């Protein structure tokens, strides 16, 4: 056995008395040693005899017990004495220990029995222990079982399926909850959890050593035809899965590291593991697991980013030491790739805005990197550094205010701006350097920004029509970040100067006399955001000069000639109105990345209002002079779309029988169907002026049998919202939908009849639920301004 008698008690007691951080009892070095005692039958689940060591050494105690040395000693003695008898005592008659899957015999103070989920027969958790110990043993046992299941599921997947599709957060709610639990308890006993986790990781990777050696052996042998067996490939995939799960837990635990000063040995362990994965290895790019190896490297970069939030100086020192070593080597393609791999390991480092000392330390580090950027000659390394700066600076630009005046940031901007701007004029650097110049302007002082942005703005506008679509997109993203700073942070210039700048931007994006937008094939939400930013400070300009023009307000609409422009205009109007009504304040700076490698999301999904926008509401938010114009043009757009892309594409039309939707909804129809979706989704938020309720319900009802699946769903959702939230519309919706089914859906289409009746039943059920007093929607039944007929 690993732990025996008083020797262990004395060791643990000595460590408990030395480590007094005030944030939790720090575990002994014996934690998890049993993981190293030999492989188990399953390869993941611990051996019977080793479970007490692995899952809960004496140090994993409840936070409530951590301040009492006597209690600590008692718990350690109890744990030590139980270790040798666990296997036998769990089977003994009258024992309080609970065997896997059995009912409990221990009664809690309030009369209930202790309960737990069943574990495999090889895992036994003593129920007659302190609460903190029980939590930790149970949590770690649950982790080993779930991790094994996830790896078994992964190994059954095709090799082409990336690890992230199976393992990352968001794929398994139960495992996500377990990860969050690790994060919560780590505040109280982080060192012990980390040691147990490291022991689990080392045991899992023991059998993968040969695979790792083969990967190393491939270095420098690109000319040899190295064929790896399927078994080796599968073993490597399993090792990568272990790394993935390990990183997920690490990220959660390390977020609590700020509560635990010291722990240098644990920090060093994490750094060693992470920086090992930032080393460039030749030969892996062509392997079957190449994509997954890059995913793991990104995950370790996220681990380092999390670690740097509480141990920045240690991470900085390690990074600079690694960089110095690589800079001292002979220049070669291998050295270049090694430096780039190292730089990418820091891409999730985030500058701490407070306290100011941390902010200054971060930008002193950035200045060291900037000096290297200015000195290095290799183009690829320069571009990698530029990309790293952008990753770090975009979050800073989104939140920076008075910090722009801090000397270290000011010096960083001035240090790089001139050279990077010059590099933007050269085609070989332009794609990589445009985002960096943008970020430097975005974190600069107001005077510096206003003196320099117009020249770079002109460069952005000139590249919107670049032949390279990537360059077009980069120029547009640079433009809308600059515009955000100009409108939101700096609050524009004088009226005439602002008008001139905005007019040049609008004319470039939406050229007069053109049916399209510039650049083409760009996600429309970028244009919507640009209009939203302008509306924040210049609402009248945004509505009259941009939205009205895009929607063709004041011009007759018989056919839809500019579907993309109309879609942008309508969506921009809705976004601006929604923001004003919800009193959201300033829109946030746009970000490009929404999900981290672990699956943790950075973007909060926006919830839009579906309450009807009325004249009174429009007046209260300052939109009354624009709202009637939008409603009038909205009805023209809807009728034109219905005539050409609604009625002709109904599944009840005999000419559409046996035709595939894909062939019917492509070409010039596609952008018009997209516009149709936008319009239908806008109901009942906007009710078209001049269209009766019966006409609108009939249009929506017909669209529930449209060939486009998304349009069908949106039409039904609009009908259901009218029934649920607007009492005055309920009878008309039910009557109109019933008339539509009887008139247009013949029994020659049995599937459509069946679907229609199901929808009708659901609409009636929604009405009934809305009238139920206990319904969550009962408060919305009272008719008012928001429920009035349009």
TrEMBL record:
Chain ranges of the Cell morphogenesis protein N-terminal domain: 236-768
Region of interest (Disordered), ranges: 1-58, 84-105
Compositional bias (Low complexity): 84-103
Gene Ontology BP term (one): neuron projection development
GO cellular component: cell cortex; site of polarized growth
Protein name: Cell morphogenesis protein N-terminal domain-containing protein
Source organism per UniProt: Cryptotermes secundus
């Amino acid at each position: 056995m690993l732990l025996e008698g008083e020797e262990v008690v004395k060791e643990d007691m000595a460590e408990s008395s030395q480590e007094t951080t005030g944030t939790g009892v720090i575990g002994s070095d014996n934690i998890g040693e049993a993981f190293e005692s030999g492989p188990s039958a399953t390869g993941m689940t611990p051996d019977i005899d080793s479970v007490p060591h692995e899952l809960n050494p004496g140090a994993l105690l409840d936070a409530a017990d951590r301040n009492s040395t006597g209690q600590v000693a008692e718990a350690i003695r109890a744990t030590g004495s139980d270790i040798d008898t666990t296997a036998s005592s769990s089977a003994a008659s009258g024992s309080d220990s609970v065997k896997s899957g059995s009912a409990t015999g221990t009664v809690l103070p309030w009369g209930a029995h202790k309960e737990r989920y069943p574990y495999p027969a090889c895992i036994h958790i003593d129920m007659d222990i302190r609460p903190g110990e029980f939590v930790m043993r149970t949590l770690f046992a649950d982790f080993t079982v779930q991790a094994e299941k996830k790896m078994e599921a992964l190994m059954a997947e095709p090799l082409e399926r990336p690890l992230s599709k199976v393992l990352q957060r968001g794929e398994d709610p139960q495992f996500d909850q377990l990860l969050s639990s690790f994060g919560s308890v780590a505040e109280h006993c982080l060192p012990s959890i980390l040691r147990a986790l490291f022991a689990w990781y080392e045991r899992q990777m023991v059998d993968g050593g040969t695979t790792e050696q083969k990967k190393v052996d491939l270095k420098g042998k690109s000319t040899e035809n190295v064929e790896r067996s399927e078994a080796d490939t599968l073993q490597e995939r399993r090792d990568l899965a272990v790394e993935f799960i390990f990183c997920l837990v690490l990220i959660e635990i390390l977020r609590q590291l700020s509560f635990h000063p010291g722990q240098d040995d644990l920090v060093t362990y994490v750094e060693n593991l992470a920086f090992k994965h930032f080393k460039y290895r030749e030969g892996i790019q062509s392997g079957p697991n190449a994509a997954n190896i890059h995913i793991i490297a990104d995950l370790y970069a996220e681990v380092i980013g999390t670690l740097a939030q509480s141990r920045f100086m240690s991470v900085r020192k390690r990074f600079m030491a690694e960089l110095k070593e690589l800079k001292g080597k002979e220049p070669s393609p291998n050295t270049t790739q090694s430096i780039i791999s190292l730089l990418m390991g820091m891409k999730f480092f985030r500058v701490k805005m407070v306290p100011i000392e941390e902010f200054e330390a971060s930008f002193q580090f950035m200045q060291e990197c900037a000096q290297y950027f200015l000195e290095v000659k290799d183009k690829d390394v320069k571009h990698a550094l530029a990309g790293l700066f952008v990753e770090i600076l975009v979050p800073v630009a989104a939140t920076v205010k008075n910090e722009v005046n801090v000397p270290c940031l000011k010096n960083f901007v001035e240090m790089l701006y001139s050279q990077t701007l010059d590099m933007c004029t050269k085609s070989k650097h332009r794609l990589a350097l445009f985002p960096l110049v943008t970020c430097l302007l975005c974190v600069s002082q107001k005077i510096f920004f206003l003196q320099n942005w117009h020249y770079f703005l002109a460069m952005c506008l000139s590249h919107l029509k670049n032949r390279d679509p990537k360059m077009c997109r980069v120029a547009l993203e640079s433009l809308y970040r600059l515009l955000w700073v100009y409108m939101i942070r700096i609050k524009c210039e004088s009226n005439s100067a602002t008008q001139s700048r905005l007019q040049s931007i609008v004319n470039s994006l939406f050229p007069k006399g053109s049916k399209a937008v510039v650049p083409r094939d760009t996600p429309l939400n970028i244009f919507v955001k640009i209009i939203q930013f302008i509306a924040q400070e210049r609402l009248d300009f945004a509505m009259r000069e941009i939205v009205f023009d895009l929607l063709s307000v004041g011009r007759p609409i018989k056919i839809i000639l500019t579907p993309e422009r109309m879609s942008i205009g309508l969506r921009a109007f809705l976004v601006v109105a929604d923001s004003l009504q919800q009193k959201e304040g300033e829109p946030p700076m746009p970000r490009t990345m929404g999900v981290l490698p672990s699956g943790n999301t950075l973007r909060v999904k926006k919830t839009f209002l579906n309450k009807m926008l009325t004249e009174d509401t429009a007046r209260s938010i300052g939109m009354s002079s624009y709202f009637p114009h939008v409603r009038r043009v909205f009805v023209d757009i809807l009728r034109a779309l219905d005539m050409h892309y609604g009625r002709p594409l109904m599944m009840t039309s005999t000419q559409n029988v046996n035709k595939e939707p894909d062939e019917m909804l492509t070409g010039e129809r596609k952008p018009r169907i997209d516009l149709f979706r936008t319009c239908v989704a806008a109901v009942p938020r906007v009710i078209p002026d001049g269209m009766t309720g019966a006409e609108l319900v009939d249009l929506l009802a017909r669209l529930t049998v449209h060939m486009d699946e998304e349009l069908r769903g949106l039409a039904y959702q609009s009908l259901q919202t009218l029934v649920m939230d607007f009492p005055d519309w309920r009878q008309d919706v039910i009557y109109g939908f019933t008339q539509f089914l009887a008139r247009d859906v013949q029994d020659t289409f049995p599937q459509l009849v069946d679907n229609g009746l199901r929808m009708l039943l659901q609409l009636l059920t929604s009405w009934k639920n809305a009238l139920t007093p206990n319904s969550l929607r009962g408060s919305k039944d009272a008719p008012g301004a928001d429920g009035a007929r349009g």
